[in-house]
Design a protein that fits this description.
alpha/beta, 11 helices
Length: about 425
């Protein structure tokens, strides 16, 4: 007969015997993996906990600056996009070629795992499982509880507990770490993104050759009333999807419309994915004690574009640096430096893009004018330079003046759409 056990006693014993790490990183996407690698390289003991088998719906676009700053090998780039085609609600098309650069495309399944392996090679310990909660021991220190993916020798999957001096929550939008530990961590605005990965065809259904070096961005209210639809080639595969924050929109129906309009209705579907994508940084990323957020959990996905990989990896670095400073000084206030540094460098870009989305994406009439503006050479050059270098371009002030004047002409109805 099996002896009965007291759950509270068992949990207390597990906590007392739990290993302790300088930092436990929850979430193994680009943000969490980058944070784990950075801390491990600094000589810290790190545990990286990640759920296996989940691929985030993502267009997979990364700028050249990310490739340079994070030493991404060429082998991970499945395509180098040479331009974009912007399509208005009425079907007007504007070509936006990239002069002197490219947009790198990655498959998230391979890209994310590469980053996790790189973190492990730097010294981080990996664990596969699902985060459940942050508990507190008798001294009030953080105890991370997660449920492992694999069963033990007895065929059970009992929760595992590890102690942490600091915790980085990189567990995505609607972060469970953020909801539990950070003020207003459950109030992040987001859109729901959905895409279908298809086998890249040689030709579209209208007989035209499929351009595997061009991204299509479709602004049409019936596809997305507040965001956009996309066709992003990834070499042998292509991501076709859309996003919206409006309730009641059928993501699958909207994507079916997009595929039909793009001549991809009958292309073979490899898989489908959906997930929330945050569009505004949280006002606070830490709990003032021992937890700091990074990546989607902190809300660092760019408005208007939905770009998140670069900002996630930067956020991971900054969260790691904040934990490193807290470990060195013993002052938990150091955790607040992650958000301060991010907003100082990228806050203006997020503000500008948020304003752009709020105004130009609000109706098909405005989307039509927005697409017309994209035909302007100054707009194209400033857009691509800002994207590739992740900074607002300031070296040509007259170009900004010209763009401003053209914007005003569109707003006042003095320019034709």
């Amino acid at each position: 007969m099996r002896a009965e056990t007291n759950p509270e006693t068992t949990a207390a014993t597990a906590t007392a015997n739990a290993p302790i790490y300088d930092v436990v990183v929850i979430g193994g996407g680009p943000s969490g993996a980058t944070a784990a690698e950075r801390l491990a390289k600094a000589g810290r003991s790190v545990l990286l906990i990640d759920r296996a088998g989940r691929i985030k719906p993502c267009g997979g676009a990364i700028p050249p600056r990310l490739v340079r700053d994070f030493a991404i090998p060429d082998a991970l780039l499945v395509a180098r996009i040479q331009g974009a085609r912007i399509i208005s609600p009425s079907g007007k098309q504007v070509a936006m070629p990239i002069e002197g650069g490219y947009v790198g495309m990655v498959d998230r399944e391979d890209f994310d795992e590469y980053l996790r392996v790189r973190a492990a090679n730097a010294g981080a310990e990996r664990a596969t499982g699902t985060f459940e909660a942050i508990e507190r021991d008798g001294a009030g220190a953080a105890v991370v509880r997660y449920r492992p993916k694999t069963v033990d020798a007895d065929g059970r999957r009992d929760p595992v507990r590890v102690r942490a001096r600091y915790v980085i929550g990189a567990d995505g939008a609607r972060s469970n770490v953020g909801r539990q530990e950070v003020k207003d961590g459950d109030k992040i605005p987001y859109v729901i993104a959905y895409h279908e990965i298809i086998k890249t065809p040689e030709t579209a259904e209208d007989g035209a050759a499929f351009d595997g070096l061009r991204c299509d961005v479709v602004y049409r209210g019936s596809i997305s009333p507040d965001f956009y639809g996309w066709v992003f080639p990834h070499g042998a595969k292509t991501s076709v999807g859309m996003g919206t924050g409006v309730d009641g929109v059928s993501l699958k129906s909207a994507t079916a419309e997009l595929r039909k309009a793009s001549g991809l209705e009958h292309a073979e579907t490899v898989r489908t994915e959906g997930a929330p994508i945050p569009l505004k940084p949280l006002k606070r990323w830490d709990n003032g004690r021992d937890v700091v957020l990074a990546g989607d959990a902190a809300g660092v996905v760019a408005p208007a574009s939905g770009e998140g990989i670069y900002y996630a990896m930067i956020g991971g670095e900054l969260a790691a640096d904040a934990c490193e400073l807290a470990l060195e000084t013993g002052d938990a206030k150091a955790l607040g430096t992650a958000r301060k540094r991010f907003m100082k460098e990228h806050g203006r870009v997020f503000w500008v893009l948020g304003l752009l989305q709020w105004f130009w994406y609000s109706s098909d009439k405005r989307r039509e004018k927005f697409v017309a503006m994209c035909a302007d050479p100054d707009v194209q050059r400033l857009t691509w330079e800002s994207y590739m270098n992740k900074k607002l371009v300031r070296k040509d002030p007259m170009a900004h003046v010209r763009v401003f004047m053209k914007d005003m002409a569109q707003l006042l109805g003095l320019a034709r759409a």
